[in-house]
User: What shape does this take?
Amino acid sequence: LLVMLSCAAILVLNLYALRQLLREHGASPFVQMLAVPCVALYYPLYFWTLRGMEVGLLTLLLNLALLLGYRLIKKITTGRLACLCAVLCAGALTRTDFIPPALAISAAVGLLCEKGYRLKIFGVLAASLLLAFSAHALFSFFYYGNVLPNTYYLKLTGVTLEERVARGVAMCTALIRDHLAAVLVFIPCLLAPVNERTVRNVLFPLALGILCAIHLMYSVYVGGDAWEWMGYANRYVTPAIPLLFILVALGLDSILRAAPRMPAFASCAVAACLCLLWTACISGPHYRRWLTGNCYHMYDDLGWMRLGVWIEKSTSPDTSIGVFCAGSIPYFAHRTAIDFLGKMDRTIATGPARFALYSGHAGLSRFYPGHNKWNYEYSIGKLQPDLIAQVWRTGTAPNLNERIIGWGYRQIGQDLFVKNLSAAKIDLRGFEPKQPEPKDLLRQLRADFGKSRPAVPVRVDGVPGAPEL
Assistant: This one.
């Protein structure tokens, strides 16, 4: 709850930062009334942020960097420069892929600020980014043994650049075609001859466009995300979508300015209609799914939570578990976890990639970011977790169950295995053998967690206590 509340605060602050940026630019009320509500209603930003991911924070930091950079260009002060450096460093420490847009902002501020300070300003901003990255890399090396984040090795090594770019282009094309077309169709308005070709009216949209392009190109370079099959912007692209809304709103505003003088209420009506149209086209299907069947992975999350609670109740504290969903299950189980897909295992992340055909939003692909590396000979055969709670089967040999049993395990469910020598650590008795209907799952969980101790009555393969996945 605290995570979601903090994420909600980030979303509100992001809207405030956007509005301040538009006011700093001197944008018309039409632009503000169109762009800010569109961002406020943009579903992917809410989805990624309220799941506790860093997307919302990166979006906020990106918009703050633009706001502070704009103010620094107008008037150079030590305080403004220090604030911009702090925001850029915070973004780089949050995710290293914030560095490309941060460098672009630093270059723009350096080029556009007062002539005698250009090189100094850019030098200070670039040096602060270098310092933040170096400090993070140094800490990572001494603490984890690698200079770069583990996910860098997991997703970018073992796969050729050609394969990554091919998937990235396919995902980017699908995003533009199926998700952003309703907005991008208005982009040519920026090129209309009615635009006033002042420095302010040209460079600000240009900067926004460059930042949007950087996010798209980075997504292409890394091969996209693993979740484009949901049908909306991935975690790399989402932080730039608010800038896209501003960019298109500026183009439309230039068209309206060239038209005969429009009453204020008519301008408000046009902005409201466009906002509703874009929201219906871009976010409407996802809001509808959320209202009728909840958001993607909601019931997966609940199932993983139930599994984690069952493990916490049924195993001793020194039990180790093997999983491929290495977030929710270990969190609720409070047990040492072995991650089969390598997001928190250096050996797997730096090992060879394995390929299978994956069905995605843009067709079949051999590359599935974050899901292309596993080594059961190491994770199970060598590390020997006491309880295997999940098994990643895509692309694995058909005789995986026999191999796991051969490593000294007993199968107790479809993807549940207990190490023979660890049976004393795991209690499979004492649970009511009643499996709830899926539609009653959320209601049962609320009731269970309202008690002093959660009870999860389940049965799989005749074994009381083992949840079905």
Summary: Confidence is low (pLDDT under 50) at residues 430-469. The CA atoms of residues 304 and 327 lie 9 Å apart.
